[in-house]
Amino acid sequence: MVFSVRRPEVVVEPGKDGTKSKYWIEQHYTYIATTTHDPENLPLVIERGEGVWLFDVDGNKYLDFSSGIGVNNLGYPTHPEVKKAIIEQLEKLAHGAGTDYFNPYQVMLAKKLVEIAPGGYRRKVFFANSGTEANEAALKISRQATGRKFFIAFYGGFHGRTMGSMGLTASKPIHKKLFFPWMPGVVHVPYPNPYRNPWHIDGYENPGELINRVLEFIEEYVFDKLIPADEVAAVFAEPIQGEGGYVVPPREFFRELKKLLDKYGILFVADEVQMGMGRTGRMFAIEHFNTVPEIITLAKALSGGAIPIGATVFKADLDFKAHGMHSNTYGGNALAAIAALKTVEIIETLLPHVQNLEKVFRERLEELKEKYPSVGDVRGIGLAWGVEFVKDKSSKQPAPDVRNKIVARALRKGLALLPCGKSSIRLIPPLIISEEEALLGLKIFEESVKETA
Ligand SMILES: Cc1ncc(COP(=O)(O)O)c(C=O)c1O
Question: What GO terms are given for molecular function (predicted)?
Answer without folding.
Answer: identical protein binding; N2-acetyl-L-ornithine:2-oxoglutarate 5-aminotransferase activity; pyridoxal phosphate binding
